[in-house]
Amino acid sequence: MSAPGGNWGFRTGVNDFWGEDHGRKTIGKTILVTGGTGFIGGAALRALADSEPGTNIRVLSRQPLPESLRTGEVLHVHGDLTDPSSLRGVCEGVSTVLHLASHVGRDPELCDVVNRHGTTALLADARRHGVSRVAYMSTTAVYGHGVHRGLTETGVNPLPVSPASRSRLFAEQAVRGFGGIVLRPHLVYGVGDVWFIPTLLRLLNRVPSWIQDGAARVSVVCVDMLGEVLSGLTRIPWRGGETYHVSHPRSTSFRSIVRTVCSTLRLDLPSRSLPVAEHREISRGMMPELTDHQHELLASDHWYDSSRIWRKVRQCPGPGFSSRFARAADWYRDLLPIG
């Protein structure tokens, strides 16, 4: 949830970086990453390091970088999204900002401080230093309640229901107004995931039943593929003010997800199926921390048209959940037993 500051003695303007034909790199680039020590940010840093050796990467965070991130191409910049004064100067010399830090808890004040005011302060520094390329990682949670089937980025007006998603929608609006772009993944899995699959595992442990036979279809994306998309965006021009869904283009059923998870982790499959309402009533008692909205995400269709982003970055999304999940099996296995 944090981000950083510093003062640098050089500058790379966006026009110099792209050159006149907007496709040819003319000088080295510097990328500022907020949230680089987190789940998605870490994947972005790995992808950047793999695809663009020699790129200058600044990671904005309150704490020193973990040993795994301390390389010659990664520079720690101290700062905090809760302290706007610490963000002054962090964008000097930067060609692209990947703003991947958010507070996703339930404290409204902290959500506003980090997501609203922190983003505003970061954009102000980007403006001061002539940085126009800012990409913000948001979430499909900004759409709020409802069944979503093949939803496009303009298919429905966002109606967020939580402090986190409301403040992230504000950050979206600020970024688009600035001329940046917004990315909205749905459910993200992979090494480092502490919400999607762990929540599903806890639910299966406490309420070992299918929800409506596991028929709900959802959009998912592997965090490593999300990192590749972010890395790809740093290498191409973009038009500001746009929003992109970022999930695998093929939706998958929760029945398929649960079967893959249980098979890989050698867990028993649910032995019965419950209607959505009955399952929710039982889960309220067995897992009170699960919100109505979170249960809805596991019980009803939530899949999104993500075709535009793959065309944009000219990448192949590769295999889906059933093939990729095994790569994170050790991570999830270490989280067992789920209490």
TrEMBL record:
Signal peptide: none annotated. Residues 31-194 form the NAD-dependent epimerase/dehydratase domain. InterPro entries: Epimerase_deHydtase (IPR001509), NAD(P)-bd_dom_sf (IPR036291). Gene3D superfamilies: NAD(P)-binding Rossmann-like Domain. Belongs to the NAD(P)-dependent epimerase/dehydratase family. This is Epimerase.
